[in-house]
């Protein structure tokens, strides 16, 4: 029974994470400059912006081309993000 409860909690959290990612991508699509360019300087990726999720410890990295917004990565905030984005 405990495993079933744990499994259901994990499914509920995953659904919440998906909903939050969808909401965030909608905000980014509507307001592309909403994210911070702070990692653009550290990584040398000029168009890179990031925005943290509100209820989960993740940061969404995205870039904006002339006609499309691309989510590049989603990383846990405790990672060495500049090193990961540079490929290190």
Instruction: Please state the structural category.
Output: alpha+beta
User: DSSP helix count?
Assistant: 3
Q: What is the topology, as strand order, of the major beta sheet? A: 1-2-3
What is the number of domains? 1
> Order of SSEs, N→C?
HHEEEH
Helix content: 40-55%
User: How would a textbook summarize the main sheet?
Assistant: 3 strands, antiparallel
- The tally of strands reads 3
Content of β-strand:
15-25%
Distance between the termini: 43 Å
Shape: globular
> What Rg is obtained from the alpha carbons, in whole angstroms?
15 Å
Low-confidence stretches: none
Short description, anyone?
This protein is of the alpha+beta class and 88 residues long.
Task: Explain what the structure shows.
- The protein has 88 residues and is of the alpha+beta class.
- It has one domain.
- It is built from 3 helices and 3 strands, in the order H-H-E-E-E-H.
- A 3-stranded antiparallel sheet has the order 1-2-3.
- It is globular, with a radius of gyration of 15 Å.
């Amino acid at each position: 029974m405990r495993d079933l409860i744990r499994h259901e909690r994990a499914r509920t959290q995953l659904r919440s994470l998906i909903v939050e990612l969808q909401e965030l991508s909608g905000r980014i699509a509507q307001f592309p400059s909403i994210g911070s360019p702070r990692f653009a300087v550290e990584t040398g990726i000029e168009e890179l912006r990031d925005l943290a999720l509100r209820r989960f410890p993740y940061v969404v990295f995205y870039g904006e081309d002339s006609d499309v917004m691309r989510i590049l990565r989603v990383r846990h905030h405790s990672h060495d993000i500049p090193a990961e984005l540079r490929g290190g």
